[in-house]
Specification:
Blueprint lengths: L2 H8 L4 E2 L2 H9 L8 E5 L7 H6 L4 E6 L4 H8 L4 E4 L16 E6 L5 H9 L4 E9 H8 L9 H6 L3 E9 L4 E2 L6 E8 L9 H12 L6 H4 L6 H9 L13 H11 L8
Parallel strand pairs: 2-3, 2-5, 3-4, 5-6
Antiparallel strand pairs: 1-8, 6-9, 7-9
Helix pairs in contact: 10-11
Bound molecules: S-adenosylmethionine (SAM).
């Protein structure tokens, strides 16, 4: 086994070997020549080869592996290669240029955290990410659904999400044990996004930490006549559990509790 292969394998990454799937993922991003495209974890360039064919106005490749970054620079001279950890990337830097589309076959261990961070940034119009099948289900589940949780409530406060297609383990090397899924995220108009994202994030986390409990119990320190009226106007009950609230209802609930929240976090 070569030194390079050992280095790649030690990161626990699965490289896409099927060009049809790679093309299908990139096609889902609907790239035009006006778009700026950022790819997270391009690896050996399986997706990048198809991105370049769309000739976006700008192409940025964010790759953590310092062996792969120079190879990408040689292979894709039109791209800006940034050798960095996507978890430490300053996503607010995309806000100045706008019209960004982000794509990646994301490493499983960082996918949820990255998506949580990225979707709340303005300047990003659309993303297409390949993630674990179960994570794809959670990102796209509607409220009331078994898979719906804090991640889905948060992400869908900023984007419309759609599960596009499932990808079997056989198209990767090394072969993972699980299925993957490709999800598209289309940013909501700015005036439909939450006014106070950090407060909303705290409320969603607070509620889903105790997802088996009833909302009346979870929110007992905040119950007021305003909250009771709000529950009634939304057709909700204090005995409902967090998964009963849609992303928009979490924003409504936040507006009721924001003056007191967080009391005891
Ligand atoms: N896009 C390629 C493909 O589909 O074959 C590679 C996908 S592989 C699952 C994930 C890639 O992300 C690897 O190249 C790995 O080095 C890179 N990577 C892992 N963690 C990263 C991080 N935190 N930030 C940026 N890149 C990361």
């Amino acid at each position: 086994m070569s030194q390079k292969f050992r280095a790649k394998k030690s990161l626990g990454q699965n490289f896409l070997q099927n060009k049809n799937i790679a093309r299908k993922i990139v096609d889902s991003l609907l790239i035009s020549k006006e778009d700026r495209v950022l790819e997270i974890g391009p690896g050996q360039g399986a997706l990048t080869e198809f991105i370049r064919l769309s000739e976006p106005r700008e192409l940025m490749l964010l790759e953590k592996d310092y062996n792969l970054a120079p190879e990408l620079e040689m292979k894709f001279p039109e791209a800006e290669v940034v050798q960095a950890d996507a978890l430490e990337f300053d996503w607010t830097s995309l806000e100045k240029d706008r019209n960004w589309k982000i794509v990646g076959n994301l490493p499983y261990n960082v996918a949820s955290k990255l998506i949580w961070d990225i979707v709340s940034r303005s300047g990003v119009d659309m993303c297409v990410f390949m993630v674990q099948h179960e994570v794809a289900q959670r990102l796209t589940a509607s409220c009331g659904n078994r898979q719906y949780g804090g991640l889905g409530a948060w992400v869908q406060s900023f984007c419309e999400t759609k599960y596009l297609f499932k990808v079997p383990p056989s198209v990767f090397v090394p072969r993972p044990k699980i299925d993957s899924g490709v999800v598209r995220f289309i940013s909501l108009p700015e005036n439909k996004k939450p006014e106070n994202p950090s407060g909303l994030a705290m409320l969603i986390r607070f509620c889903f930490q105790k997802r088996r409990k009833q909302l009346g119990n979870i929110l007992k320190s905040y119950i007021s006549s305003d909250i009771e009226e709000w529950f009634e106007s939304e057709g909700l009950k204090l005995s409902d559990r967090p998964e009963a609230l849609s992303p928009l209802q979490f924003q409504g609930l936040y507006n009721c509790v924001k003056n007191d929240f967080p009391l005891d976090l």
